[in-house]
């Protein structure tokens, strides 16, 4: 396959590619496209580059614009879903019977709902991920993989990628490829800063809730620095710190180590493994508090795969946008086929369809973080095991999206450099702030392109599969 940049013979010139990779690794260090190492994940004494593609990858301009445009609609949708308790109850009713993690989140949700929310401020930082599906007619269309409403990462490093590729292309003598700026980190920080300022206490801080192992810390740091530049103070703490030292005062203000917390920004807490019983208690305390939660428990649930599937049912988007048919059609046009596997006729039909032709689908449990989805023959194994039990409701079924492969080289520490067939996934960051009933900020906050070898069905950058990339618009 030819390289889509029109490099022609240059792309098969291994010596040139090796030389460009050396230049690129130094550029990654210079521009901050870096990570800590697996060997020493909590130290910055020795760091390495984050995996990246040697060249940017082509994305049709019209499709990129479509993803940018629909992002504000998705922001509104997540917010509306998070405020509709009847919908959330119905959508997740079958799932919480069989999926313990979603059930635990739901318990907290119900608790907060009954007690009454303490914060009139909502802050959402999400990322809607897409692949460009190539249909039988050869037409490419934007199809959503999922929307991440908690700990959507790489807004920091993605903003450093344009400088890296611009330099590589310059050195390669390719001057006509335009790599656009990526403002993700600035706009995401603007959202957090806005929520912090509405909270209204100069002494209060933003708390990044982080994990023990901090390989991807520079992605966080870029956002932190942007906040400090806006005079918004940031601290980083773990669940254990909240358990040991956190408390609420009589007005449910959250305090920790003498700091009043204005915003809790979760970069952790999206997988069952992230929770001990104590951590669940800490999550509940934060959710009950006056602090702005990013996301709050309802918006976290709004990002589950079951909710994504329920939103694709006829009439549901109209329920959320009764006066805005344009938003409905913009959103709906990005949906791939999504199917409930709940017991009953509809679920039975989906199940039979998947068993007949498993390669056309992806089977998804209610999990985040990559590597959980089920493909091919394994779909039949799993479905045959659960088909006569309510356990099937732990999964949803989705049409498999098949993007056009392109050639690129992935530069990854410890892996040989070789041109390979790759698939890209485009993410759009969204940010919104609501104060009471009024949306005071709603923006598309830049993009993330991740590219992986077509050998892998699943897995992100952190999982060691995908690499950071830039779109070049064609
Ligand atoms: P996670 O929450 O674990 O990130 P995703 O739904 O994003 O779950 O899926 C993980 C990966 O699986 C995606 O990055 C993509 O590579 C692949 N994938 C997910 N859904 C589909 C689909 N419908 N068609 C093709 N690939 C998919
Ligand atoms: Mg994903």
Automatic annotation (TrEMBL):
Cofactor(s) the protein needs: Mg(2+)
Q: Which terms in the GO cellular component ontology are assigned?
A: cytosol
Q: Which residues form the Glutathione synthase substrate-binding domain?
A: 204-302
Q: Which InterPro entries match?
A: Glutathione_synthase, Glutathione_synthase_a-hlx, Glutathione_synthase_C_euk, Glutathione_synthase_N_euk, GSH-S_sub-bd_sf, GSH_synth_subst-bd, PreATP-grasp_dom_sf
Which residues of this UniProt protein bind ATP? Answer: 146, 305, 364-373, 375, 398-401, 425, 452, 458
Q: Which reaction does it catalyse?
A: gamma-L-glutamyl-L-cysteine + glycine + ATP = glutathione + ADP + phosphate + H(+); gamma-L-glutamyl-(2S)-2-aminobutanoate + glycine + ATP = ophthalmate + ADP + phosphate + H(+)
Protein residues bound to Mg(2+): 146, 148, 368
Q: Sorted alphabetically, which Gene3D superfamilies does this protein's record hold?
A: 3.30.1490.50, 3.30.1490.80, ATP-grasp fold, B domain, Glutathione synthase, substrate-binding domain superfamily, eukaryotic, Glutathione Synthetase, Chain A, domain 3
Tell me the GO molecular function terms.
ATP binding; glutathione binding; glutathione synthase activity; metal ion binding
Q: Pathway membership of this protein?
A: Sulfur metabolism; glutathione biosynthesis; glutathione from L-cysteine and L-glutamate: step 2/2
Cofactor remark: Binds 1 Mg(2+) ion per subunit.
Specify which residues bind substrate according to the UniProt entry for this protein. Answer: 127, 150-153, 214-216, 267-270, 450, 461-462
Identify the domain of life.
Eukaryota
Q: What are its E.C. numbers?
A: 6.3.2.3
- Alphabetized UniProt keyword annotations: ATP-binding, Glutathione biosynthesis, Ligase, Magnesium, Metal-binding, Nucleotide-binding
Give the family, as the similarity comment puts it: Belongs to the eukaryotic GSH synthase family.
Q: Which PANTHER family match?
A: GLUTATHIONE SYNTHETASE (PTHR11130:SF0)
* Role summary: Catalyzes the production of glutathione from gamma-glutamylcysteine and glycine in an ATP-dependent manner. Glutathione (gamma-glutamylcysteinylglycine, GSH) is the most abundant intracellular thiol in living aerobic cells and is required for numerous processes including the protection of cells against oxidative damage, amino acid transport, the detoxification of foreign compounds, the maintenance of protein sulfhydryl groups in a reduced state and acts as a cofactor for a number of enzymes. Participates in ophthalmate biosynthesis in hepatocytes.
On subunit structure and binding partners, the annotation says: Homodimer.
Q: What name appears for this protein in its UniProt entry? A: Glutathione synthetase
């Amino acid at each position: 396959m030819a390289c889509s940049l029109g490099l022609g013979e240059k792309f098969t010139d291994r010596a040139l590619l090796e030389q460009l990779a050396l230049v690129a690794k130094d550029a990654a260090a210079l521009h901050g496209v870096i990570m800590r190492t697996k060997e020493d994940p909590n130290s910055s004494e020795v760091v390495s580059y984050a995996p990246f593609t040697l060249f940017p990858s082509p994305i049709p301009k019209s499709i990129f614009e479509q993803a940018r445009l629909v992002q504000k609609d998705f922001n509104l949708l997540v917010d509306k879903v998070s405020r509709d308790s009847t919908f959330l109850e119905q959508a997740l009713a079958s799932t919480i019977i069989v999926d313990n993690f979603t059930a635990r989140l739901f318990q907290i949700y119900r608790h907060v709902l009954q007690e009454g929310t303490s914060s009139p401020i909502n802050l959402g930082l999400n990322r809607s991920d897409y692949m460009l599906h190539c249909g039988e007619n050869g037409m490419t269309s934007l199809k959503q993989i999922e929307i991440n409403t908690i700990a959507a990462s790489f807004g920091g490093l993605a903003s450093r990628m344009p400088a890296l590729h611009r330099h590589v292309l310059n050195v390669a003598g390719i001057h006509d490829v335009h790599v656009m700026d990526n403002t993700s980190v600035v706009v995401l920080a603007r959202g957090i800063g806005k929520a912090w300022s509405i909270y209204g206490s100069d002494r209060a801080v933003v708390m990044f809730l982080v994990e023990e192992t901090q390989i991807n810390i520079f992605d966080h740091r870029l956002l932190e620095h942007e906040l400090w530049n806006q005079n918004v103070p940031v601290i980083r703490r773990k669940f254990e710190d909240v358990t040991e030292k956190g408390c609420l005062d009589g007005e449910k203000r959250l305090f920790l180590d003498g700091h009043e917390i204005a915003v809790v920004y979760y970069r952790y807490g999206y997988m069952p493994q992230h929770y001990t019983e104590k951590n669940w208690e800490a999550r509940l305390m934060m959710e009950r508090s006056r602090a702005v939660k990013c996301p709050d428990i309802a918006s976290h649930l709004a990002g589950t795969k079951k909710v994504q599937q329920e939103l694709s049912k006829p009439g549901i988007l109209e329920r959320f946008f009764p006066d805005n048919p344009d938003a409905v059609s913009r959103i709906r046009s990005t949906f791939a086929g999504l199917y409930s596997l709940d017991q009953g006729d509809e679920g039975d039909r989906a199940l039979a369809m998947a068993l007949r032709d498993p390669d056309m689908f992806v089977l998804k449990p209610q999990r985040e973080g990559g590597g959980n989805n089920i493909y091919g023959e394994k779909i039949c194994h799993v479905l045959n095991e659960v088909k006569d039990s309510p356990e099937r409701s732990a999964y949803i079924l989705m049409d498999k999206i098949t993007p056009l492969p392109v050639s690129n080289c992935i530069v990854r520490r410890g892996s040989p450099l070789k041109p390979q067939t790759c698939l890209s996934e485009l993410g759009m960051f969204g940010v919104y702030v609501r104060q009471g009933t009024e949306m005071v900020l709603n923006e598309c906050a830049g993009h993330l392109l991740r590219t992986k070898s077509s050998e892998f069905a699943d897995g992100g950058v952190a999982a060691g599969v995908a690499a950071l990339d830039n779109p070049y618009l064609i």
